[in-house]
Design a protein that fits this description.
Radius of gyration: 14 Å
Number of strands: 11
Order of helices and strands: EEEEEEEEEEE
Structural class: mainly beta
Number of helices: 0
Largest sheet: 7 strands, mixed
Strand content: over 45%
């Protein structure tokens, strides 16, 4: 079984920074795309940023220029550096990965709360 464990959430003032980390463990043959999604109260889960194995990234317009996604393939980990945080960034952030074990499937972390105060 594959597990994704996130860390790094918390409470920060507007304009501040946080760094989220997510590590995948279990029986993993390879990891394709990894990424971060978020869900604010009363809203649907939305894409924040993704990164492919080769390093190609994709991110939501709302976070471009403020958030940076990166990964460490050797450690099956993905990171999200969040700068210039805004109150509207407040949400539960979920790590996501497309993992090949004996087959390819997608996995989610349990979520980590990010709260930005004004």
């Amino acid at each position: 079984q594959v597990q994704l464990v996130e860390s790094g959430g918390g409470l920060v003032q507007a304009g501040g920074s946080l760094r989220l980390s997510c590590a995948a463990s279990g029986y993993i043959r390879s990891i394709n795309r990894m990424g971060w999604y978020r869900q604010a109260p009363g809203k649907q889960r939305e894409l924040v940023a993704t990164i492919a194995t080769g390093g190609i990234t994709n991110s939501a317009d709302s976070v471009k220029g403020r958030f940076t996604i990166s990964r460490d393939n050797a450690k099956n980990s993905v990171f999200l550096q969040m700068n210039s945080l805004k109150p509207e960034d407040t949400a539960v952030y979920y790590c996501h990965a497309i993992v090949t074990t004996t087959y390819s499937g997608q996995y989610w972390g349990q979520g980590t709360q990010v709260t930005v105060s004004s």
